[in-house]
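Researcher: Please translate sequence to structure tokens.
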Amino acid sequence: MKDKKILYVEDDLSLIEGLKYTLEKNDFLVDNARTVEEAYRFFQAGRYDLLLLDVTLPDGMGFDICREVRRTSAVPMIFLTASDEEISIVKGLDMGGDDYITKPFRLGEVLSRINALLRRSTQFSKSDMILASNGIRIDMSERICWKGEAEVPLTLVEYKLLCLFLQNPDRILPRELILDRLWDGNGSYVDDNTLSVYIRRLRRKIEDNPNAPAKLLTEIGFGYKWAGEERETESGI
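Model: Translation complete:
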């Protein structure tokens, strides 16, 4: 992960010093923004491999940054939040975040989660495969998804989740297997509700009617299945 560049958005000086030191010691290049406005300036002026966002900032929320960045970029994003309340976590993921870490956190855990997310990003940028099924096409060499002729913007986790389904058409994938594949075999990092958030978000992008999905199907009590061919709709999760 040498020379990977991170935009770290945090205004707490005690946290900035420790985490920035740890990241730079592990060969990351780190820019620190302390406000939403400053974060926008950094992001517009540079290229970053990952964003690390505090939720509460002096002039706004990390959610605001996430929402704005997702208009133009699928760069991996991790939220740092003092709240472990489900509504805050779900909001961040639903908005386009790839992961979250609750405060107080261990520096080693943050480093591990960053490395895991960047490994997944690198892994999916090297393939030259084309995946196509049920009106959805993915060019894995360019990491681009189309629904028909329209390009579909996906975050890293949405992209990997969709690739997993298209690689296993008409096969029921248990929730535990999906979590294991998405989070480098360490599903303990997320709760079961997190997967439901990603499924719902992905359906909004690839289904004609997200409330009655015909591509990404729920197998109640088991998991999910990608319909290899178009079929009758079902009720969603």
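Researcher: Any highlights?
Model: Residues 185-189, 231-237 have pLDDT under 50 and may be disordered.
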